[in-house]
Design brief:
Elements: E1 3-7, E2 17-22, E3 29-30, E4 35-40, E5 44-49, E6 54-59, E7 66-67, E8 72-78, E9 117-122, E10 132-137, E11 144-145, E12 150-155, E13 159-164, E14 169-174, E15 181-182, E16 187-193, H1 200-214, H2 222-232, H3 251-260, H4 278-289, H5 296-301, H6 336-351, E17 354-362, H7 364-376, H8 386-400, E18 406-409, E19 412-415, E20 421-423, E21 425-427, E22 430-432, E23 435-436, H9 444-459, E24 473-477, E25 496-500, E26 504-509, E27 514-527, H10 533-548
Helix pairs in contact: 1-2, 8-9, 8-10
Length: 555
C-alpha cells in the first residue's frame, strides 16, 4: 500500500491561508474528494479535499497553521489501486493547473470597461459551479462602489467567496438578493460608471479564473475554483469592502445551518477566533428545540419578558423613549431567570381570564399555637412557619374543592389526585417556585423543614428542574414583608394561586363587642374557565375556617 502526501492545491493569489478546521483525524478512512481541512483568508474560506481515498496515517497541520500551495496536509495510505490519485473525472485539486498562468480571453465580468454610462456587472467565470447561493449582499442602490469592492458573497458546499466589482461607479440597480442562485454571466448590478477601466488585478484574476475553467474538467474542483474565484476577490486592501456581519463559519457549517433553518448570526462560535462549528449549530438547535433558547424570529413573535412589541397581539407598538433625554440612566440586561419567568408571567397574565377574591382569616389561635410549638421545638432547629400551616390548610381546601387542583387540557379538565404545592421564593436572581411534593402525606414540621431547605437552595441557585415542576397549586407569601392584598398571577398550567400578606391585629365584632384578633389577608386568584366565582368564595371561606380552627384539618 502506497503512502501518499496530500498537499494544498493551487490557491491562486493567496500567499498564506490559515487552517481553521481539521475535519479528519489519524485513523479515519477518507474518500477521494472528501474535505480534510478548512482554510480561510479575509475574503474566502474553502475546504481542501483529499486527492485520494485511503486511511489517514499522519496529520501534518494543526489549527492556526499558515499553509500555502504545496504544503503537505496529511499522509494517506492509499486504498489499493482503485484509489490511486484521483483520476480524471473525479476531482484532483492537487494537480490543478497553474491558475495565474493562462492568458485566456477576458471573462464575462466587464461590459465595456470605459467612460461613463451604464455598466453591467456580471458574475465572473466560476468554473464548474452551478447555482451558487447569494448569502450576503454588501451594497445597496445609491452606493458609490470602488473597483474591486466586494458586492456580494456567494457560497457553494465547499467554499464561500466574495464577488468584487470590476468597475467603479454609482450603483443604480442591484439585480440579486440574499437567497438567489447565480451562475456565470448572470447580471449582478448596473453601475453608472465614473472611471475609465477595470483595474488590472481584477482583470488578471478574472483571466486566471477563465484559465481554470478552460482547463480539463478534472482540475475544476470546487476547491480549485474557489481558490481562483477567491483570487478574483482578493485585492490587497479594499476600503469599504467588508465581511463584517457575516458569521464566521466554514461553508459546510453554513450549509448545515441553512438546512436546519438555523440563523447562523445568532449562534455563538466556540471555535478558534470565535468561529462557529458544527457542534455550535447542533447545541443551538437543541437549546431552541428544548425551549431553553429562542431565535430572534421566535422572540419577535412571542411576547417577551419585556413585553415584545405586542405586534403578535395586534397591539400598538411599545413606546420607545430615550430616557437619557430626561436625566441620567443606567441600563442593565435582565438575568436568565428573570427573562424566563417574565415571559411565563406575561403569557399567563394575558391568556388566563383570572379573577382575584380577597378575604381575611382569623389566625389568632393558630399563631399562638405556632409560637408555642416553636418554643417546644427550639432545640430541633426546625422553625415552623405560618406558610407551612397554610400549605396544610390549602391541601384540605383543595381536597374539598378539587377543581382548584386541576389543569385545563383542551376542552377537558384534568383532576389530579396528588397534592404538590409550589411556593414563591424571592431570590437574588429573581422569583423561583420550588415545589413540595405530596403535602397531604406530610406533617407541618416536615413541610417546614423541606421548605427551609428548598428556599435555601433557590437562593443559592441550586434548585434542580425536578424541584420546580409538578405543582398542582401555588402559594405566594409576602407575609414576612408586608402589604395588605395583591393579585398574584396564576402559574400555568395550574388554575389557582393563593397570595398571602402580613397579618395584623384588628378589631373584630363578635356579636357583642370588638375583640382584638390577628387577621391574615388572603388573595385567591383563579381561572374563570375552570372555576366559578361562588366556588372561589367558598374555597376562601373554608380556608378561613380551617385557619381559625386548625383541628378542622383532621376532619
Ligand atoms: N404575617 C405576619 N408575619 C409573617 C407572615 C404573615 N403572613 N408570614 C411570615 N411572617 C413572619 C415570620 O413569622 C417571620 O418572623 P420571625 O422571624 O419573627 O419568626 C418573618 O415574617 C419572616 O418570614 P420568612 O419570610 O422568613 O418565612 P416564610 O415562611 O413566611 O416565607 C419564603 C418563606 C421563602 C416564602 C419567603 O422567604 C419569601 O421568599 N417570600 C417572598 C415570596 C414572593 O416574592 N412572593 C411574591 C410573588 S409575586 O411576585
Amino acid at each position: 500500500m502506497a503512502l501518499l502526501e496530500v498537499k494544498v492545491p493551487d490557491i491562486g493569489d493567496f500567499d498564506e491561508v490559515t487552517v481553521i478546521e481539521l475535519m479528519v483525524k489519524v485513523g479515519d478512512t477518507v474518500k477521494a474528494d472528501q474535505s480534510l481541512i478548512t482554510v480561510e483568508s479575509d475574503k474566502a474560506s474553502m475546504e481542501i479535499p483529499s486527492s485520494t481515498a485511503g486511511v489517514v496515517k499522519e496529520l501534518r497541520v494543526n489549527l492556526g497553521d499558515k499553509v500555502k500551495e504545496g504544503s503537505v496536509v496529511l499522509v494517506v495510505e492509499a486504498a489499493g489501486a482503485a484509489a490511486a490519485p484521483a483520476a480524471a473525472g473525479a476531482s484532483a485539486p492537487v494537480v490543478a493547473a497553474p491558475v495565474a498562468a493562462a492568458a485566456a480571453p477576458a471573462p464575462v465580468a466587464a461590459a465595456p470597461a470605459a467612460a461613463s454610462g451604464p455598466i453591467e456587472i456580471r458574475v465572473p467565470d466560476i468554473g464548474d459551479f452551478k447555482d451558487v447561493v447569494v448569502i450576503e449582499v454588501m451594497v445597496k442602490a445609491g452606493d458609490s462602489v470602488k473597483v474591486e469592492q466586494s458586492l456580494i458573497t456567494v457560497e457553494s458546499d465547499k467554499a464561500s467567496m466574495e464577488i468584487p466589482s470590476s468597475h467603479a461607479g454609482v450603483l443604480k440597480d442591484l439585480k440579486v438578493k440574499v437567497g438567489d442562485t447565480v451562475n456565470i454571466g448572470d447580471l449582478l448590478a448596473i453601475l453608472e460608471g465614473t472611471v475609465s477601466a477595470a483595474a488590472a488585478p481584477v482583470a488578471a484574476a478574472a483571466a486566471a479564473v477563465a484559465a481554470l475553467a478552460s482547463a480539463p474538467a478534472a482540475v475544476a474542483t470546487p476547491t480549485a475554483v474557489a481558490a481562483a474565484v477567491a483570487a478574483v476577490a482578493a485585492p490587497a486592501h479594499v476600503p469599504g469592502a467588508s465581511t463584517l456581519g457575516l458569521p464566521h463559519a466554514s461553508p459546510s457549517v453554513r450549509k448545515f445551518a441553512r438546512e436546519l433553518g438555523v440563523p447562523l448570526d445568532e449562534v455563538k462560535g466556540n471555535g478558534p477566533k470565535g468561529r462557529i462549528t458544527q457542534d455550535d449549530v447542533q447545541t443551538f438547535t437543541k437549546a431552541v428545540m428544548s425551549g431553553a433558547a429562542q431565535t430572534k424570529a421566535q422572540a419577535a413573535k412571542a411576547p417577551a419578558a419585556s413585553g415584545g412589541d405586542g405586534a403578535a397581539l395586534g397591539l400598538i407598538p411599545w413606546p420607545k423613549v430615550d430616557f437619557a433625554k430626561f436625566g441620567p440612566i443606567e441600563r442593565k440586561e435582565m438575568g436568565r431567570i428573570k427573562k424566563i419567568s417574565g415571559a411565563n408571567l406575561l403569557r399567563n397574565a394575558i391568556m388566563i381570564p383570572a379573577v382575584t377574591n380577597h378575604d381575611d382569616a382569623d389566625i389568632t389561635d393558630l399563631e399562638a399555637f405556632r409560637v408555642s410549638t416553636n418554643k417546644e421545638n427550639e432545640k430541633s432547629g426546625v422553625k415552623v412557619t405560618m406558610l407551612a400551616f397554610l400549605i396544610k390548610a390549602c391541601v384540605a381546601a383543595l381536597k374539598k374543592y378539587p377543581e382548584f387542583n386541576s389543569s385545563l387540557d383542551g376542552d377537558a379538565i384534568v383532576y389530579k389526585n396528588y397534592w404538590h404545592i409550589g411556593f414563591a421564593a424571592d431570590t437574588p436572581n429573581g422569583l423561583m417556585v420550588p415545589v413540595i411534593r405530596d403535602c397531604d402525606k406530610k406533617g407541618v414540621l416536615q413541610i417546614s423543614q423541606e421548605m427551609g431547605e428548598l428556599a435555601k437552595k433557590a437562593r443559592d441557585g441550586k434548585l434542580g428542574p425536578a424541584e420546580m415542576t409538578g405543582a398542582t397549586f401555588t402559594i405566594s407569601s409576602l407575609g414576612g414583608i408586608g402589604g395588605k392584598y395583591f393579585t398574584p398571577i396564576i402559574n400555568a398550567p395550574e388554575v389557582a394561586i393563593l397570595g398571602v400578606c402580613k397579618s395584623t391585629m384588628e378589631p373584630v365584632w363578635d356579636g357583642k363587642a370588638f375583640q382584638p384578633r390577628l387577621m391574615l389577608p388572603l388573595s385567591l386568584t383563579w381561572d374563570h374557565r375552570v372555576i366559578d366565582g361562588a366556588a372561589a368564595a367558598r374555597f376562601n371561606a373554608f380556608l378561613g375556617q380551617i385557619l381559625s380552627d386548625f383541628r378542622r384539618v383532621l376532619l
